[in-house]
Write a sequence for this structure.
């Protein structure tokens, strides 16, 4: 283990040195030719960024250089693919060591066996269903399923490691996106969450509003499974200001954009998400074997096919979503491996919100809340708190206030990365930056060096976050995924994150604030003690 | 009784003669001077009105003359108040005979006694409540109530007769509107409907969606009661095409506009409605004595005061309405006398809709449905069917598809007029004319002569419906009540009504179609046999 750690450390140091070379030395050399212009903190933007005051160390980029939001700063490398350049950057090419078998989430044989069983169970089930359907005169479109040992979703599942959901250059990911965008759907059903509710509306919980209940589980010809969230809101609509975050619509485009953002931040903690124009009659209604699901489909007065939330049956048709006449946009998020082969635990976010009209959580009133958290297991050692801070940065960028829980794979123990699932409540308001989402960062004043380096890179005009996001999202069939104001909000929010860190550094010093990640906890991976 | 009927008939014939003189002879004389232009059926409008083919009889106006929708026809009497001229027209000045005591809904002494009892009960109740509130530390603003024997609402109630809810020149009506617009509110509560539900959501019924549950009963200083419906939708928003009529929002401005339209049609079957900017904190929350109602108030993330539907408590805050920060527009509809002193019965509309996604009622599939209805009590004699047709014309003009029941005062028996209550689902779509609402007219092919004469009058440019409506609605404090497209839709729909009648006349002859109303059924008023 020590040998691999040392190798890993060496790789990391090499990467950081490359970054220094690229960002500190090269710009300085270039700066000699161009004069000091590049170090001015961005003239015509209204964020009044404080000038750097010597806090940037050699290892870190200039905090705010070239961070103009209006694009007036000369972009020395304009033209060509910014996204390509980003992913070619040394920071995005730190090699992780060869994975040991126990560092992978799943073993190939185990998964294949699981897959084979699923297919044969499906075939038995279909045979029985067809007979029953013939008797009761139900017409269901039957599609052949195929057992494909090379299926992209299998490769995605096999690629999940203790470091991330996928590796940067895994060709299975673009393939999986493509499969979700176009592969034939063989079945549609409620999700397990939904089935657990059994159609009951849990009115004691504010947390589960109607929007929750319109997601569906779709199965593809090769047994890939994806969660479908239909479009509820136009791209240019902002969430009304009187709406509480916990009853906000879930947005299919937020789910898509969050996947791209997570990949650009190099977290790789969001499962792949693709947009798709789904024929809700031919691809959902006609392939479902669930009579409850059939029962919520209806034809609207305008002759469009619609379906509505199960738990609100009969009362709440105004919550329906409708095709035009059958086609409906939605997001498809790849399923993670089933809980039976890859158990996960769901842990309350220490910075959760109150989910009531008036209640306040301790973190909202106690400025020393983080000191308490730092004492508590599992936040008192290892990377867990830093991972929470990463997540808060991610959520602040998207504007998602609804992070009440997070999940981790039990196999990787307390050092496992946090899954950033369920991002559909992001991108609701481009005109507002909800600073309270950043509370973990601003209260704990710590951040992983690797995260900070990437944030600084994305604040540079050559890699401007809005530009690489725009380019990345262009690859989705439902493009444009985000309207311009949402893209520009990303740049503005990134500046605000950097300023929060800058303030921390000024107050506590860089050594306190910027944490060398990659240094692992000395304990071996262990099974987390929390129970799901 | 016969004497009065004869007097009434004479008055009516005089009025009709005046109308003939004004509309048939005068235009002909004028026409001689102007040439035949006036008889051309409206050049630049896209309704392709059929040219009159001699069906207009001396007693009726020209069907379509001067009915240009774009206002290009010269308006010989432009300038001044069209509404004033309309109400000065002989058709609107047919004198009803002096009312016999039994033709009034209420006797003054009876109502005064009732009022006195209410006031003293209120005072007792308030005394007890104040003591209880003091103990449990609830602060309720207490306003003095006054017993006012000259209150406008008392005069409105006393003015209800077997002919209409109010007489044309009753000064109590403008006074009541003004009182509802500005008089101090002393209490707010759920309506009786609401209380009957006891907070339960009746999910077996599609008919009662959420919108229903946001109406409140407000009491004014002089004990006037009004039903408050808050603004749910912007004036220029149209109901989305996929929304079923029975889950459509209730619109406060539709409630206001319906009162004005009903008065302009001279039906006077809608209780007075006024708009008001209500302070939902000071005028609702702080004066309510109902703890359930208090509990649905909250402060939104944008710091506005909001309240939401009781039956959806906890789950459905997205249904809330919010003030800005406290002020919220709403409609106030005057209450009718209580059921204990003026009982009403609610009768299913024979042309009701199915209120399901796929169900169809008989009238939708059977073109001879009216023949069946004509055989059935109470539609087989008297004016009941003609009253239903009046109501369908009213509803077609507003676009209200939600007329599942109608009410009548039991005191006036089967000949009583129909109350046009609950009009908030009108004015949802200006761009669509829902012809099915006119089914009673188009299937039965009959109409009261008095109604037809007024419709024809309102199709004349001098009295154009959209113009008199615009002028009438200008009197409401929440003006503009309707956006222009809704006003123009009224003219277009009026033309469609006239064409339906024209087709009936062409097919069946005028004698069959146009019914002399004012000829009463020979039976004395009797108590209706249906039970509420």
């Amino acid at each position: 283990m020590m040998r691999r750690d040392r190798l890993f450390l060496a790789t990391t140091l090499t990467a950081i040195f490359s970054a220094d070379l690229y960002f500190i030395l090269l710009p300085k050399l270039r700066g000699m030719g161009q004069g000091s212009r590049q170090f001015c903190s961005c003239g015509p933007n209204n964020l009044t960024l404080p000038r750097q005051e010597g806090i940037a160390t050699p290892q870190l980029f200039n905090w705010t250089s070239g961070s103009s939001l209006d694009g007036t700063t000369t972009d020395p490398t304009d033209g060509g693919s910014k996204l390509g350049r980003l992913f070619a950057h040394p920071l995005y090419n730190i090699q992780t060591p060869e994975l040991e078998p126990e560092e992978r989430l799943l073993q190939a044989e185990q998964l294949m066996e699981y897959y084979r069983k699923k297919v044969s169970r499906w075939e038995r089930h279909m045979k029985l269903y067809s007979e029953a359907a013939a008797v009761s005169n139900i017409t269901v479109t039957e599609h052949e399923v195929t057992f494909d040992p090379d299926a992209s979703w299998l490769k995605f599942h096999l690629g999940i490691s203790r470091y991330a959901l996928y590796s940067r250059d895994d060709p299975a990911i673009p393939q999986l996106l493509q499969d979700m965008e176009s592969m034939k759907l063989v079945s549609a059903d409620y999700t397990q969450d939904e089935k657990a509710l059994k159609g009951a509306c849990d009115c004691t919980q504010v947390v589960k509003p109607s929007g929750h209940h319109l997601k569906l589980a779709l199965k593809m010809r090769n047994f890939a499974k994806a969660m479908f969230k239909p479009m509820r809101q136009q791209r240019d609509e902002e969430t009304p200001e009187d709406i509480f975050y916990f009853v906000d619509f879930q947005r299919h485009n937020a789910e898509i954009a969050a996947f791209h953002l997570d990949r650009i931040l190099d977290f790789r903690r969001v499962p792949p998400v693709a947009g798709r124009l789904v024929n809700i009659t031919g691809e959902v209604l006609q392939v479902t074997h669930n009579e409850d699901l059939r029962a919520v489909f209806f034809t609207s007065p305008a002759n469009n096919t619609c379906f509505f939330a199960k738990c609100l049956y009969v009362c709440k048709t105004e919550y329906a979503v409708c095709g035009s006449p059958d086609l409906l946009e939605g997001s498809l998020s790849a399923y993670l491996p089933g809980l039976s082969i890859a158990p996960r635990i769901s842990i309350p976010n220490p910075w959760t919100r109150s989910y009531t009209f008036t209640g306040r959580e301790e973190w909202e009133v106690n400025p020393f809340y983080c000191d308490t958290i730092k004492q508590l297991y599992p936040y008192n050692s290892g990377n867990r708190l830093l991972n929470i801070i990463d997540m808060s940065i991610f959520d602040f960028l998207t504007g998602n206030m609804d992070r009440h829980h997070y999940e981790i794979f039990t196999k990787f123990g307390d050092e496992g990365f946090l899954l950033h699932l369920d991002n559909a409540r992001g991108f609701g308001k481009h005109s507002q930056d909800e600073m309270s989402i950043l509370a973990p960062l601003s209260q704990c004043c710590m951040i992983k060096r690797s995260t900070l380096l990437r944030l600084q890179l994305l604040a540079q005009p050559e890699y401007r976050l809005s530009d690489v996001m725009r380019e990345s999202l262009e690859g989705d069939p439902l493009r444009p995924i985000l309207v311009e104001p949402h893209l520009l909000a990303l740049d503005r929010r990134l500046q605000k994150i950097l300023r929060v860190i800058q303030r921390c550094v000024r107050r506590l010093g860089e050594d306190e604030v910027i944490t060398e990640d990659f240094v692992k906890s000395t304990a071996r991976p262990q099974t987390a003690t929390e129970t799901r």
